[in-house]
Amino acid sequence: MSEYDLEVQSNINIEVNLFLEAIYQKYGYDFRDYSKAHIKRRLMHRMSVSQFVSISEMQHKLINNERFFEQVLKDFSINVTEMFRDPHFYYRFREEAIPILKTYPFIKIWHAGCSTGEEVYSMAIILKEEGLYERSQIYATDFNQTVLQKAKEGIYPINKIKEYTYNYQKSGGINSFSDYYTAKYDSVIINNDLKQNVVFADHNLVSDKVFAEVHLIVCRNVLIYFNKKLQDKVLRLFKDSLIPGGYLCLGSKESIRFSDSYHQFDTIDEEERLFKRKLHFKR
Ligand SMILES: C[S@@+](CC[C@H](N)C(=O)[O-])C[C@H]1O[C@@H](n2cnc3c(N)ncnc32)[C@H](O)[C@@H]1O
What we know:
Layout lengths: L2 H25 L8 H14 L5 H10 L1 H11 L10 H10 L1 H4 L5 E6 L5 H12 L6 E7 L2 H9 L1 E3 L3 H10 L10 E4 L2 E4 L7 E5 L11 E6 L8 H14 E9 L14 E5 L4 E4 L6
Helix pairs in contact: 1-3, 3-4
The chain binds S-adenosylmethionine.
């Protein structure tokens, strides 16, 4: 890179940092420890769609227009998800975690960063099939109100169903996937009984507190948007929320290896990112 290019990059970094500081000071949302690559990509996208010439120009609008901030919030929150995403993860989850969860009289589960709910209903289906749903309570959280509302409704495009049925079967599903929804026009609606034991709630992993005494945390494809410092902080939050022996499930590109909390977990399946909080931990 030439000296000129280096200076341009350094100036962009300053503008990005100031933009995130402005969000924090004005609206209280803290993106300062999100991955800079992710934030830059999303800001470049917004600049080009809304035709700004610089991040600084966009910052002026951000400070003076709350609706524009809401747009930026949506830009920062990537909501891609699917039912039984990475089916082999669910297959291994059934094999490894379900037999242990069966030993508890009551099971508390936290889905952090649940997006539009597909992952949550996938888990609810597994719990039903394993006879655990009636004694489970699922807390499904996200910091994005729009996706939480969609998650509560549990209505998904019918054209996704072929893929979801395939995922369900590969994940070890034992029924017909169509037992779990009703089709209406070009959508499907998830059965009400799968919603009964789920509470959807607003929770920001950056600033909100622990969910105490949970047996299982599923937080897949969320930490990839955070820098190492924030990942470390959130992994500590998860460790403090789990009972000893509780399970932690991360996304396929996420790891606990680098973090301070690493030694407090046993790795159950490295490939599928399935971990378990140690029963006894000595420093
Ligand atoms: C890519 S989606 C992952 C959805 C689902 N867990 C999955 O793996 O299919 C990431 C989700 O994390 C949420 N998220 C991002 N930052 C968050 C934060 N600080 N607190 C809570 N949720 C957050 C986003 O709103 C988004 O819904």
